[in-house]
Amino acid sequence: MQSSTHTPPSPLLSDLRSQLQSFNSSLSNFHVVYNTPSISPKQLPPQTLHVLDSSFNPPTCAHLRIALSALHSQAPKPQRILLLLAIQNADKAPKPAAFEQRLAMMRLFAQDVQNQYSSQSQKESKEGPLAVDVGITKEPYFHDKAIGIEESGYYADETSGQQPQQVHLLGFDSLIRLLDTKYYPPKHTLEPVNALFGRHRIRVTRRTEDDNKWGSKEEQDRYWEALANGDRKTEGGKKEWAERIEMVEGEGDAISSTRVRTFAGKCDWENVEKLVGRGVREWIEAEGLYKVNDENG
């Protein structure tokens, strides 16, 4: 039997596209697309919700290292991790990979996080297997994302109504954006960020020395120290926020999604797999993502 000229649409991509369209036309600001395993937070309400917010274009081993480092921290248990994708402008074609493609890769990445965490844990956790969620938000700013997650009630304890503490996992560059007043018109102060620091925490992975755009460890720490010393007071920054920011070491070589896309564009699958893992690499290759001549690239 001859194969068709056009590959039929993937049922997974069709489902993800449908969820995106429904969410975009709804009044909701937060929606969970997928979780692995299929354990509702109502069954085991988490005390800590790690939130890894990225464009995931594609998810990389750098994302994996950040996630695992947080999960092995001393955060209160039970814990869950949310992989969060912001879909502002969902009515426009995102480049270079569509949102449904990113969500499909995030599903594979979620399984990698769960498998790696289980293999690194010496004994099975009392609260059972780690739950990893894939979610979407319409909010562009961290403080609004945190509020949207809370207001959804998805992670609230049904009995007490208690919400987990969110720990937002940021790279140092994202910390700079978080505390940049240009993102908070019309007053251009850091006052809106208080909604995040008032209830939640930030875990910042320092950029490694080979990613010299962001300076040395000492230079990155001085940015945090300026906040702790009250140097941001005139901008609306509070020095007590520094107590809710944990600075941690980055591990391994710097990995950028741009580098992955470059290798994929050259069909250098060996190097792609080194940077994203096998499952995500296989998806990228099978779907023909990030081709040099791709009109979305």
What features would you describe in this structure?
There is one protein chain. This protein has 297 residues and is an alpha/beta fold. Helices cover 36% and strands 15% of the residues. It contains 10 helices and 7 strands. The protein has helices at residues 11-24, 61-71, 99-120, 142-152, 172-178, 194-197, 217-228, 257-265, 269-276, 278-287, and strands at 30-36, 48-53, 79-86, 131-137, 165-171, 201-205, 245-248. Strands 1-4-3-2-5-6-7 form a 7-stranded mixed sheet. Strand 3 (79-86), helix 3 and strand 4 form a beta-alpha-beta unit. Helix 1 (11-24) packs across helix 3, helix 3 runs antiparallel to helix 10 (278-287) and helix 9 packs across helix 10 (278-287). The protein is globular and about 55 Å long. The model is unreliable at 1-6 (pLDDT under 50).
What oligomerization state is this entry in?
Answer: single chain
The 3D shape can be described as globular
Measured between the Cα atoms of the first and last residue, the distance is 34 Å
How many beta-strand runs? 7
Strand neighbour order, sheet with most strands: 1-4-3-2-5-6-7
Average pLDDT over all residues: 90
Coarse structural class: alpha/beta
The tally of helices reads 10
- What low-confidence regions span 5 or more consecutive residues with pLDDT below 50? 1-6
Strand content: 5-15%
Element-level helix/strand string: HEEHEHEHEHHEHEHHH
Topology:
Blueprint: H1 11-24, E1 30-36, E2 48-53, H2 61-71, E3 79-86, H3 99-120, E4 131-137, H4 142-152, E5 165-171, H5 172-178, H6 194-197, E6 201-205, H7 217-228, E7 245-248, H8 257-265, H9 269-276, H10 278-287
Parallel strand pairs: 2-3, 2-5, 3-4, 5-6, 6-7
Antiparallel strand pairs: 1-4
Helix pairs in contact: 1-3, 2-3, 3-10, 8-9, 9-10
